[in-house]
Amino acid sequence: MIRMARTRSRPRHPASLVPLALPTLWGGVAVLWKLTCPLAQQESLPTRLATSVVFFTVGTGLILGLWRGLARELRQVRAIAQATQQALLRPLPPRLDGLSVAAGQLSAAPGAAVGGDLYEAVATPYGVRVVIGDVRGHGLGALGAVAAVLGSFREAAHDEPELGGVLRRLDRALARHLRERARHEHPASGGWNPLSPSAEEFVTVLLLEIARDGEVRALNCGHPWPYRLGPGAEPVAAGDPLPPLGVFPLPDELPAHRCTRLLPGQALFLHTDGAEDARDRGGRFFRLEEVLERAARTGAPPTAVVQRVHAALLRHTGGRLTDDVALVVLRNDVSRPSLAPPALPRSIGQIRQDGRRATGHRNCTRGSR
Asked: What domain range includes position 266?
């Protein structure tokens, strides 16, 4: 039987009590003065006023000292949480094997930098492999599934020669995570009643493989298809998607489908459904394709595309997101090959004729001197 480990509160560090030392000492002196000094026993109005001022000052000092200590601890906790979240959903490199990359995340949970969405991109011997996914629900409760899927992808992307093998590794990692959660949630294990139980949890996943020649191959498990940004913005697809991971077993055959080809200067825009499902106060959906059309016409770089979509989303929803949003942009920055035709080999007669012309030119130059 697996039991949840109980957390024990750690004793306060002595340094955290330093801001309270002076007010406490001052308060002790004030109490001693009140109890032992004959002057303080008088009931005159000036004495009462002086006593009130002393105790008010002591109380204010204690409150301020306690507030400063709590604020310092809160800053430390936030720094640790931010470092942990960045390690889980780490920033993508700006360039990957000829691709310019940008990504961004908006969490529906207040104060959280990571929610139920996930993404990663790595350069492998088989091309640049990308994953983007969405865990059912949102906020901090979905971090376990995010960690399981991302940890499996970061290893499988380098080990598996086929994209289908990568997807099977993700499916097995998620299944292990769900089994462990189910054991912890069981009443016999002293579990709890979560808002999103493991039996209802699943993950939508889009796997991409971008070759050096720009060919994009995909496997989709219930996730929104990406957009291709060039002169405009158009959605790309490669057949019917598979069910989300965690719902049904994967089929025996998992052939990756050719999705599109990225020409130099073109980009792929990947997103989670929180971007298209966002609504304003009137219930109108966010028009993602229109925002992408404007960004594509201006030739905005990947970072600017992510920033424009984020800003438009926050304006549309008034800053009140109901679901997490993840965005990834990958642009093909490989230089175009030269279109000039190659020089044809010259015949022997042409080489001799060029030689006689050069000799005649030198003779004319000598005669002019």
From this structure: 89-332
